[in-house]
Amino acid sequence: MIISLDKNTLERLTKTELEIIHFINGHEEELPGLSIVDIAFETYSSPSTVSRAIRKCGLNGFSELRYRSGYKAKSEEIQSMNELFNKTLIEAQAVHERISLTDILAVIKSLNEAGEISVFARGLTKYVGQEFSLKLQLLNYHVFFTDDPNIMQIKATKLRKEDILFILSLNGETPELVSAAATAYQRGNCVITCCCNDNSKLITYSEHSLIGFKHSHQAIKEFEVSSRIPLYMICRIIIDYISFYS
User: Fold this and answer.
1) How many other C-beta atoms are found inside a 10 Å radius of the C-beta of residue 190?
2) Could you tell me if 159 and 187 are in contact, meaning their C-beta atoms sit under 8 angstroms apart?
3) What is the pTM for the complete model shown?
4) Which comes out higher in pLDDT, residue 77 or 61?
5) Closest by alpha carbon to 63, among 46, 76, 51?
6) Burial class for 238, CB neighbours closer than 10 Å (0-12, 13-18, 19+)
7) CA-CA-CA-CA torsion sign (237, 240, 243, 246)
8) What is the tens place of the pLDDT at every residue in 207-220?
9) Which helix (H) or strand (E) holds 175?
10) Of 64, 69, 59, nearest to 25 (Cα)?
11) CA distance linking residue 103 with residue 108, whole number of Å
12) Which bin fits 179, alpha (ψ -120 to 50), beta or left (φ > 0)?
């Protein structure tokens, strides 16, 4: 039985929710292959009802249930895949816990007051920067994006007083990004850093810093390719807030 039912839990569950838990406990071996939509279909309920039933039983949600079921699975492939799912979940949860709401709001306020927003990023992080820049442009912000180190140095010396430099970097130690941040800072411009390193040199030159969580897991170890999920998440939060509330 993957979900234990005591007297207190039984009293909290509705008839439909109890049927869902019975279904889950009765299909423990098949559970790794089922999605929350599958369970809802089989129990004539909805994904939200399934999620609520699981939470009433003391679990954090379907992700924890799937992790438990994968851990108990006999298949090594299922166990391995479950571990990968859990790494992504840990990464997302850690970003949510680390980011200050007041810091996010301060960054958005600065973006709203900016003349031009220059977005700098290097390596694979440039794809985060490109998407972030495009979405800001669609929201009618004046945005300039580059991943070219030479252009970065020139652009940093030509920022106007009302312009902002927004830097995206996983480690926050890329020399050309640090150099551009230092130049903009010395000229009195607002520098915003979004990275995953509490000790980043970029923070020294930043008025606002949004620090995400970097998981030790690397997708391609030979090339030190780490996940950019934290950076994507932070940028998405900014865009979503601006889109819905500004």
Assistant:
1) 22
2) yes
3) 0.72
4) 61
5) 51
6) buried
7) negative
8) 999 998 876 655 55
9) helix 175-186
10) 69
11) 9
12) alpha
